Fold this sequence. Notes:
The complex is a heterodimer of chains A (272) and B (306).
Chain A: E1 4-17, E2 20-33, E3 37-41, H1 48-56, E4 63-68, E5 71-72, E6 80-83, H2 95-106, H3 112-125, H4 141-154, E7 159-163, H5 171-186, E8 195-199, H6 203-209, E9 212-217, E10 222-228, H7 237-242, H8 244-266
Parallel strand pairs in A: 3-8, 3-9, 6-7, 7-8
Antiparallel strand pairs in A: 1-2, 1-4, 4-5, 9-10
Helix pairs in contact in A: 2-3, 2-4, 3-4
Chain B: H1 3-7, H2 10-21, H3 34-54, H4 58-84, H5 96-141, H6 143-157, H7 164-171, H8 175-200, H9 204-212, H10 217-255, H11 260-269, H12 273-301
Helix pairs in contact in B: 2-3, 2-4, 3-4, 3-5, 5-6, 5-8, 5-10, 5-11, 5-12, 6-8, 7-8, 8-10, 10-11, 10-12, 11-12
Amino acid sequence: MTANKIEISHLSVNYTERGRQFNALHDVSFGVGTGEFVSVIGASGCGKSTLLSVLEGLYQAAEGSVTINGTPLHGTGRERGVVFQHYSLFPWMTTRSNIAFGIKQARHELSRRERYQIADEFLGKVGLEGFGKKYPSQLSGGMQQRAAIARALAMNTDILLMDEPFSAIDAKNRVILQELLLSLWEGDSPEHRKTVVFVTHDIDEAILLSDKIVVLTAHPGTVNEIVRVPFDRPRNRAELIKTDEYGKFRNRLLSLLYQDVANRIGGEEVVI
Amino acid sequence: MTLKNRLLRVTHLLFAILLLVQLLPDRSSNDVHTGALIAFAVGLEILTLAGSFLTKKKESLSLLLDIVGFIFAILTVWSLATTKFDLLNPLLFPAPGKVFAQFAEDREKIFINIRSSLGITVKGFVLASAVAVPLGLFLGWNARLGGAATYISKFFSSIPPIVYIPYGIALLPTFRSVSVFVIFLATFWPVFAGTMSGVMHVDQRIIDSAKVLNVPKPEMLFSVILPASLPQIFLGCNQGLSVSFILLTSAEMIGARDGMGYYVKYYSDFGDYTRTITGLLVIGIVVIAVTFLFNQLQKRLLKWKH
Ligand SMILES: Nc1ncnc2c1ncn2[C@@H]1O[C@H](COP(=O)(O)OP(=O)(O)OP(=O)(O)O)[C@@H](O)[C@H]1O
Ligand SMILES: [Mg+2]
């Protein structure tokens, strides 16, 4: 058995709201192998962001454990790069300073000039060339998110935790960013692959990018099923989408997602 | 902007009217210094014309012209009411030219007084900010102490700093040090409270992004928390600055031997209302100039915020 990079076992997370305990995640277990790309999908409010905030080290689980490289997770860590669901740039720094600041925290060995060089390079990669001197408030929401993605990618961490990073981004740029993410994930060689946990609500995106998809069920968030993506890489999106296998696989995921909704409609509590 | 746009303005008409009014015969028997008034008006007009050519933005040009227009209109009315028709008590209401002539005559004395007042203000203000901001950062960051410190600063900032003057006089050797002390207190509490509230209300999302970047503690405070709280810190500074001027001039009127407040008080005690009015106008101009400079600094440091 190969050791997993990230091991989540029997994780339960509670929120306290006005004195009442609310069980957001219940008994969630799965592993993420070294160099594996894992997507997490599930209905809105099922606890995807909650799960990531535990992996980020920002929120403490009530029960269960998370280990990274075999050691129990304790707070935030330099080996993890994060893209939040919300915009997370520092408003008083220009776009390129934001990225350079991130690089500085993750890669101490680089000089100031090198940091800014890498920042500019990544600004170009996410299509923000020429916007480096702008402040976040001068950019659109999608552009800010692209800058935040550039920051996380430029930090070149072993692990990437991304929470619906492309959901606010237009279709054309989304494809560009998906390809960029895949090429950075692959790195120079299979041994150097990054480990990615990627939250999305876009089924096609999950299939195109991942090795493995974790489907969550809501109220409380539990793992419904873990599905391995059966398609070889590199995946040609235009070709793949036309195949029968793809259609079947997609339908299977959809039914796993809707099964959850259907159960709830069938029950007393109607949520939609 | 076209040349017509820049030059054909009501303000210049008002300037012409002001000059024409000066052609009317003087009714007042006092010395009215029409020459000083004309010199001032012409100087202001020249500056305004220069400004009209240099200003790039339409709105700022209009603003400049409107302000100058008001000044010309006020001078016209003032001139008519005093020099030309002698409607007001000349002792209490000197002619405008007389005030300008007085300023020219007293300019050295006035500059010395301005320097004294500004010296005290800057000392007290800078000292207070230099202590309040780091202390506020530290206490605000420390959640438990921050809660208590907020109430304590609320208590102290509710005491009008002017009531510290008598105690300050007993405590400190010179009146200058008392003034610095009072301005220190007047600035310290609002800046301290502003800094703490800024620190305690930093957006959780900003703190979370800094945390996942593993920003080390000292850098967290100075590269993240400080800039994030800067808008609130400036709010406190602005409050401190405006209270400082009120306090300083009041204090100078109570017991100082120099300063602008002293100048006004001293001459009004002698019934020299020309100098009193000169002093009032100078104080207004100095306060506006300092506030303007401070706002420029604030704009520069907060240019990321729209
Ligand atoms: N800070 C919090 N305090 C209390 N309840 C919370 C908090 N954050 C999230 N929740 C609740 O926990 C549940 C899961 O939230 P979470 O944000 O993890 O969902 P999500 O799957 O990321 O949803 P989305 O797809 O809309 O982003 C929701 O019911 C939400 O109301
Ligand atoms: Mg979410």
